[in-house]
Structure formats: structure tokens, C-alpha cells
Amino acid sequence: MRHRNYVYVLVLLVAGVTLIGGAFNDVSARGRVLDESSGDPIAGAQAIYGIRVALTDANGNYVLDHLPRGARYAIQSRGYDPGSGDTSTTEVKLHPFALSLQVNEKDSGDPASPVPKPEIRQGDTRVGGPGTDTGSVVAAPYPDIGSQLLVCAPDHDTATIDARGGAATPRVVVLAKGTQGCPPLPTPSPTSSPSGSPAPSGNPAPGASPSPTPTASPSKSP
Question: What residues does each domain of the chain span?
Fold first, then answer.
């Protein structure tokens, strides 16, 4: 009888340790998802652990309950490269993979008139466009965050912006009517064609027949 009591006590002790250990290892992941380029919160992003999904609110906050301590989970949102976090993560910044602009004409009323065929320039390089007749233009991949960009279009003055935002929702840029237009792009330097190069002296040109070697005529005997 005493032996049976010892067994009951041992079973209860093991069960208690298991429950206590499980309680200490069961944690909630709480964090915030931000746009890396602008620092703005991303609403509607997904925090994914297995088949469980939690959506961020308007302030970018999410909660995933009852995770094993140290568990890792994925963060996804339309317009951004995927990210990840673990149960100690409090902030996740997602990198946008494309910059989307909506270019409208300044002082054109409400709703504003779109500027046809806009372009995005970075230095002497066109990184986006020409866009659509409805003023939409995209630069992909996303330019260096914070870098200076030139937005231009025919029959309009240019505008300078920095590379921020415009990932899931197009960023609005306005251009005034004017004569600046888009500056000309540099023309590529011509490259010499190997077919026009003269063949080295002493060697026949490729495909040419070698010239016959002259032979000495035999001398006549007197």
C-alpha cells in the first residue's frame, strides 16, 4: 500500500513539473511592423507561425499567443520583401521592393488631372518609366532609401523627391505645367567593330586566301 502511494506521488510530481515547465515556455509574441523607408506603421501585415496568422492593426501592432519560447515566425505584407521575428522581437522593419508614384498636374482641380508618361530618374539613369497615360510610374527594384530622385514628364517642370514610401500605396507627386521636360539621357559611346579592323601585316585576314609564293624561273643555258 505504501509503495502504491509513492507511485501516485511520483506521477503527480512529474505532471506538476510538466505543467509548470510548459507554463514558463508558453509566451506571446508582441511586436510592430514598420516601413523601412519611411518609418510608417504597416497595417494589414501578416505575422505567421505555422497555420496561425495574426494581422497588424492600424498602428502596425500584432500579437501571436501561446508560442514556444524562442520560436521564430514570418512577417509578410504586399509590396514588401518578407521579414521574420522571434518571441523577443518588438519591431520588424520591412524593405519595400518597388517605388510606386502617382504623378498629377499641379492646380488641375479636384480630382487632379494625371500627367501622362512620367519618368523617375536617378542621376543620368532612368530607374522608372515612361509611365502610363494615367500618371502611374514604378521604379523597381526600390532605389537606395533616402536617395534623391528626379520626377519628370513632357511639357511639365521637374520635381525632386527622396526615395521614401510608395510601396503598397502609390505616393502622390505633383508637377507644374512647364517647359523643362525630361533631360536628355546620355548616349552610349560607340564601340569599334572587330570586323573593320585591318589584319596585322604578314598575316592574311580571316577568310582570305594566302597569296601564292613567287617561284624563281629556271635560267637558260647558253
Answer: 2-94, 99-175
Confirm if 142 and 37 have CB atoms less than 8 A apart. Answer: yes
Nearest to 167 by CA among 78, 74, 102, 83: 78
Side chain identity at residue 52, one-letter code: R
Cell numbers describing residue 129: 518609366
Is-same-fold flag (2-94; 99-175)? yes
Cell digits of residue 142? 526600390
Answer with the residue of higher pLDDT: 12 or 103.
103
| 126-173 per-position pLDDT tens digit | 999 999 999 999 999 999 999 999 999 999 999 999 999 999 889 999
Q: How far is CA 28 from the centre of its chain?
A: 30
Averaging pLDDT over each range in 54-58, 106-110, 201-205, which range is the top one? Answer: 54-58
**What kind of fold does domain 2-94 have according to CATH?**
Immunoglobulin-like (2.60.40)
Name the region of 71 (left: φ>0; alpha: ψ -120 to 50; beta: rest): beta
Q: Based on the number of CB atoms within 10 Å of its own CB, is 99 exposed (0-12), middle (13-18) or buried (19 or more)? A: buried
pLDDT at 210 over 70: no
Find out if CATH 2.40.110 is the number for domain 99-175: no
CA dihedral 52, 53, 59, 65 (to 10 degrees): 0
| pTM given for the model | 0.70
